Amino acid sequence: MTEAGARAPGKAILFGEHAVVFGEGAIAVALTLYFETRVRVSGGDETRVDGRPMDRKHHAYYQEAVRQAWGARGPLEITTSSSVPSSSGLGSSAALTVATVAALKAMRGRLSQEDVARTAFEVEFAVQGRASPTDTSTASHGRAVYIARDEHERHLWTVEKGGNRWCIHDLEFPPMDFVIGYTGKKGNTAELIERVRRACEADAGARARIARIGAIVEEGRGALARHDLVRLGQLMDENQGHLSALGVSSPELEALIAAARPHALGAKLTGAGGGGSMIALARDSKACSSAIERAGGKAFQAKIDREGVVVL
Length: 312
Fold this sequence. Notes:
The chain is an alpha+beta fold. It has helices at residues 60-69, 92-108, 113-128, 134-141, 189-202, 204-226, 229-245, 251-260, 285-294; strands at residues 3-15, 26-41, 48-49, 52-53, 76-82, 144-148, 155-161, 164-171, 178-182, 264-270, 277-282, 298-302, 310-311. The strands form 2 sheets. Strands 1, 2, 3, 4, 5, 6, 7, 8 and 13 form a 9-stranded mixed β-sheet that branches.
């Protein structure tokens, strides 16, 4: 095969950010916001990305994906398009990596979601120097995903790296309408994780909040299985309260969450916080989106993607 394309979804953390660092579970959902990559064998003398020569400074994820999934088989032309906003906490780098790895593997023959997820995780780890497989597994599998240290029902695959272990599981879920509100501000993930770590070392109350977020994750699994949207919204609101108390929210996020809540069953930040995005389980997506934009955010309407990575 001399050319192929693939599409991968963005993602949002529904429950469990920050607590997952302390061994609690987390739930992520794939969103109907997508990154597409198309690759073809080039007759030129260098690989190009959207018309530009590929280099490490501008194309680190592409370069590493080519190294791991294509090797020295010759130059490529890579073209991309995306509806996942970058640097927003919605898994744009994972969607890029998964779509690119899948397209490259499709050029070489058959592929599986697990194979793509594992390679994409290694690509992100090589580029970032550290990584969790949450985003790449969610972009590969789609749907709703539960991440834990041990295997449970509906286990998909387990990733181990540097003494860490992540067990990835599929979750059943009801139809849901989400509105994402992007603040336009990027948070510092490493700084926010360190802030929570210091708080937990110094304060039993902070440790109790982390434990409660872990319990919310487990209650969220049950609410998803029961298709109980009201309870899901309540749990989102409670989760946000704990994240805010732990110091990882921001005035911008709080403004968008407050604007969304009259039109939603629940709303919270998604990802590390400090900026980035919030997610609302909408009762009225149009009204929720309008309220978020009046409060200064950029709104994106989405549902849960049911397919994961797809070869085009």
